[in-house]
Design a protein that fits this description.
two-stranded antiparallel sheet; about 20% strand; 2 domains; 3 helices; single chain; alpha+beta; 2 strands
Length: about 90
């Protein structure tokens, strides 16, 4: 790979967020980065399954009800759960 640089992310002004890319590019400056490649990578990132999406599939497969408030849940998947590493899958 003869890339000269790395696009770490792009700024989505409308959504007010930075999207992490880590996409190599071969031009001298960012203006020469291929817009089609960036857009293709963004579409690929949007299609990825998130942890939340995976947990939703798990809940549906087990016939569980997804609730809005953690206090109403029998099982809670939050930061503390992720930190402990006891996922029970």
């Amino acid at each position: 790979n003869l890339s000269k640089g790395l696009v770490f992310g792009v700024l989505d002004v409308a959504k007010r967020q930075i999207i992490w890319l880590e996409m190599p590019f071969t031009s001298q400056n960012i203006k020469g980065a291929d817009n089609k490649s960036v857009e293709a990578l963004l579409r690929k990132l949007e299609a990825r399954l998130s942890v939340g999406g995976l947990l939703e599939i798990k809940a549906k497969a087990q016939g569980l009800t997804i609730v809005e408030n953690a206090e109403d849940a029998d099982e809670k998947y939050d930061y503390e759960w992720a930190k402990m590493g006891d996922y029970g899958f």
